[in-house]
Amino acid sequence: MDFEAFINQVSQKIKVDFTSYKQKRVKRRTKNFIKKHNLSDYKSCFDKIKTDPQFKREFLEHMTINTTEFFRNPDNYKYLQEEVLPKLLKKHNKIKIWSAASSIGCEAYTIAIILNQLGVGPKRYEIKATDIDSTALATARKGKYKPTNLKKVDQSIIDQYFTKENNNYLLDAKIKQQVKFKRLNLLKDDYETNINLILCRNVFIYFTKEIKNRLTQKLSQALTDDGILFLGNTEYLLQPKKYNLEKLYTSFYKKA
Ligand SMILES: C[S@@+](CC[C@H](N)C(=O)[O-])C[C@H]1O[C@@H](n2cnc3c(N)ncnc32)[C@H](O)[C@@H]1O
Q1: Separation of alpha carbons 63 and 21, rounded Å
Q2: CB atoms within 10 A of CB 129
Q3: Do the Cβ atoms of 115 and 196 come closer than 8 Å?
Q4: What is the pLDDT of residues 166-187, one digit of tens each?
């Protein structure tokens, strides 16, 4: 079995189309995974994926990089807090926010913390967070974090919203209940519409150019007429107009 046959069959078995991801990286990660599990080749890896549900879950986790942190790129969150959210809240009684590849939840909870800092009541917003990786979502629902996830967070925010337990930080129940998590595959599931703010950060880097274009179009369609798309810092759009978007600030695009 060669790599192409392996990835096609794994995609069908796991129901995640790995051919939509940059193939060089998928191949490298697969090879690492095979080595880590002392397997001999693609076929033995595929046989184990077919028969061992735990192994199958581990494969998916290995392929989807879950690295994330609270207030990742603080400058962008400052802009969000000072410009984007106040403007949206001024125009709308209630805003819909979607963290579209939320991993273990740091990004969605950062938004909830910012809204609490702004003194906005939870009746005025809805925060949904989705990811393809169910293990990451389970961690998100627990709200238990490692110090590395909080490197960019001001001590005053840590004191206000987290409790230290051994070497972990537990997020306040008040913030936890403000985010609803759900599994969603950006490649094949339908997106909700009329969303005021979408955060889709640090996931497009893994997709092929064609897929990135198609998903950007879908995200733009999911936004309200004045909706905002917040991308990762290395995921800028060269021609935002192509997607009915215009650049607002580094990583921020507004529906045009
Ligand atoms: C590097 S993390 C980014 C987390 C967060 N957005 C941030 O910027 O800190 C990438 C996330 O994308 C998720 N992901 C990968 N492919 C996906 C897909 N097809 N649909 C939904 N989520 C996906 C992974 O499971 C992972 O949690």
Answers
A1: 10
A2: 28
A3: no
A4: 999 999 999 999 999 999 999 9
Contact by Cβ (8 Å): 17, 215: no
Please, what are the domains in the chain?
A: 3-63 (no CATH), 74-255 (3.40.50.150)
| Atom 13 in ligand 1: residue holding the nearest Cα | 101
User: pLDDT, tens digit, for every residue of 113-156?
Assistant: 999 999 999 999 999 999 999 999 999 999 999 999 999 999 99
Distance from residue 64's CA to the centre of ligand 1 (Å) = 7
Q: Which atom of ligand 1 is nearest to the CA of 189?
A: 20
Cα of 6 vs centre of ligand 1, distance in Å, is 23
Global pTM?
Answer: 0.95
* CA pair distance 137, 118, nearest whole angstrom: 26
Instruction: Look at residue 118 in the predicted model and tell me its pLDDT.
Output: 97
